[in-house]
Design goal:
By secondary structure, the chain is α+β, with helices and mostly antiparallel strands. 20% of the residues lie in helices and 29% in strands. It is globular and about 80 Å long. It starts with 12 loop residues before the first strand and ends in a 7-residue tail after the last strand.
């Protein structure tokens, strides 16, 4: 097959389902649900940082077994579209790029272009990844029918040499199915994100007829296709949960199919940003971290629920294709609601001596230590006496808890970097700053988003030097020793025991808590925040065990005293 001349049975009816957002024991169930909506194809990104969170530590096993996911798709008679990046956006931390890149590429303009350093790192990754995909192409008897070149590049840059390098490199590594690009349906984006001989598709959520016409006028090679039909949307912390009326979304789908276009539902099933993988956006200078839930108001809900939107889309697809889709699987069982007490204490004393650390004149970022997630801790000593000394932290990414001689004196937000007034006695004081880090920006020119204290710290007009920088990963944080005598000192780590008769889907509600991280039986469910809209964290059935289960909660702001296990989600709808 000539990769520059795609030929498909149309319409292509595809749905986005990201293996890294769904527990592997549930892959088959979610694929079956997509098929029951009338889809014939699954689409997934490949998240580089999911497989190589630390440089040189690659993992394609267990949850990261991409080829096993491909096998599940094939076993259910579905085709597969793969979007291997290296950048994927996807509301995923750093757009799927590994954070350790930022230690090598100090200039923030060096990513996503033909900068030799960046290309060398991508080539090394593709040497491992692409052959794993090549052996599952439809030309080799597998389900993969197309691969994307980069991702929405027309919204970012114009380096066509970079795009050609990616395309030619994938071809040289064995890809012989069609390549495609996807961009916004605007001439400036299509011109920046496409290259000659590669099938161009567009991403949009409405105005189907007009946007299909833009593709027609642009002269795409291959089927007219909406590669991301945004039938819902993602949420940021502190905002409202997004909802889209099923009938209105189904009307756009009908218009798309009537215009002769193919479609990829983004998302068919959104899943969850487990661990620290949720991304973020920048609206001007305002930082907007994405929630742990990636429900997306998709037709198949975060826990596999079949929604009204699912039924509306299924009806349109059956009506337009004349084919009745198979029946979906039964809904999953849910845990019975219960409330459990949490016991714990401060982890600040143990945090001061744990993790990886370095000393030097300036604070160091998480990325400079080669780490992808967790918490940063900074210490220095300030000389006195000084009255009303103004401490300015510079760039805080993302929330800093400032302590003087152990006492919390201020919380400084990335979006509100106000100075802190200190009263420094003659003997001086110990200054320590714990930085709670949320997701890295995943879209636009703000994507090189380092974490920790980034700007110079100043006391008045002079710089503060001589820092000890310490990093603790999520895994290390969950195992910190607790000081129960310092019960009111934050951060606070608590443990709760949950007994269940039979494992089933559940939703953990940290009602009354402020901001932190939750683990179930050692697995990081993700971040929670009291500003919503998300009020529960999804805890899928495969993470539970019959009998006793352990929940751990790390709180930075306002500890509660119990946790609820619920039988339904609360996403703020």
């Amino acid at each position: 097959m000539n990769a520059s001349e795609p030929s498909f049975a149309t319409p292509i009816l595809s749905g986005a389902l990201h293996y890294f957002r769904v527990h592997p024991d549930q892959w088959a169930d979610r694929v079956q649900r997509c098929r029951a909506m009338g889809l014939t194809t699954i689409e997934t990104y490949v998240a580089w940082n999911f497989h190589e969170p630390r440089r040189g530590e690659r993992d394609f096993s267990g949850w990261r077994d991409l080829e096993a996911f491909i096998g599940v798709v094939a076993d259910h008679g579905m085709q597969l579209i793969v979007r291997p990046g290296p950048y994927i956006c996807a509301e995923w931390d750093f757009g799927g790029l590994p954070a350790w890149l930022l230690a090598d590429l100090r200039d923030t303009s060096q990513i996503r272009c033909s900068e030799p350093k960046f290309l060398a790192l991508v080539d090394d990754w593709f040497d491992d990844l692409i052959p794993r995909l090549a052996r599952h192409q439809v030309t080799q008897g597998g389900p993969i029918v197309a691969l994307q070149v980069e991702n929405e590049y027309g919204s970012y840059g114009s380096d066509t040499a970079y795009l050609r390098h990616l395309r030619d490199g994938m071809a040289a590594r064995g890809i012989d199915v069609p390549f495609f690009t996807s961009d916004g349906p605007e001439p400036v984006m299509l011109l920046g994100g496409t290259i000659d001989g590669v099938w161009a598709t567009a991403n949009f959520g409405g105005d189907a007829v007009a946007n299909v016409r833009v593709l027609q006028d642009f002269g795409t090679r291959g089927p007219l296709m909406c590669m991301e039909f945004w039938n819902g949307w993602f949420d940021h912390w502190g905002e409202q949960h997004h909802r889209r009326e099923p009938a209105e979304a189904a009307s756009v789908l009908r218009d798309l199919l009537d215009a002769g276009a193919s479609v990829n539902f983004y998302m068919a099933h959104g899943g969850t940003n487990f661990g620290g993988y949720a991304g973020a956006n920048l609206e001007g200078d305002i930082y907007q971290p994405t929630t742990t839930s990636y429900d997306y108001d998709a037709p198949i809900g975060e826990a596999g629920e079949l929604t009204e939107k699912f039924r509306a889309f299924r009806s349109v697809i059956a009506e337009r294709t004349g084919v009745t889709p198979p029946e979906p699987p039964r809904d999953a069982e849910r845990l019975s609601p219960q409330r459990v007490s949490v016991h714990g204490g401060s982890v600040l004393p143990s945090l001061r001596g744990a993790g990886r650390h370095t000393s030097g004149p300036l604070p160091v970022s998480m990325e400079d230590l080669g780490e992808p997630d967790g918490v940063m801790h900074y210490r220095t000593r300030l000389r006195g006496p000084l009255a009303d000394a103004e401490l300015t932290l510079g760039a805080v990414h993302d929330r800093a808890y400032v302590r003087a001689c152990g006492d919390l004196v201020a919380t400084v937000e990335r979006n509100d970097p106000r100075p802190v007034l200190l009263q420094i006695p003659a003997g001086g004081l110990d200054l320590e700053i714990v930085v709670e880090c949320f997701g890295r920006v995943n879209y636009g020119t703000g994507t090189p988003d380092r974490k920790g204290l980034l700007g110079p710290v100043r006391l008045g007009l002079r710089f503060v030097h001589d820092w000890t920088t310490r990093h603790l990963s999520f895994a290390e944080l969950a195992d910190l020793a607790v000081d129960e005598a310092a019960d009111e000192t934050l951060p606070w780590l608590g443990t709760a025991s949950v007994t269940v008769d039979n494992p089933a889907d559940g939703f953990v509600a940290p009602a009354g808590w402020g901001s932190g991280v939750l683990w179930l039986n050692g697995f990081c469910l993700g971040r929670y925040r009291s500003d919503g809209p998300q009020r529960t964290l999804y805890a899928p059935a495969p993470l539970w065990q019959a009998g006793e289960n352990e929940l751990r909660i790390l709180e930075f702001a306002t500890p509660g005293r119990d946790l609820e296990i619920r039988d339904r989600p609360d996403l703020g709808a």
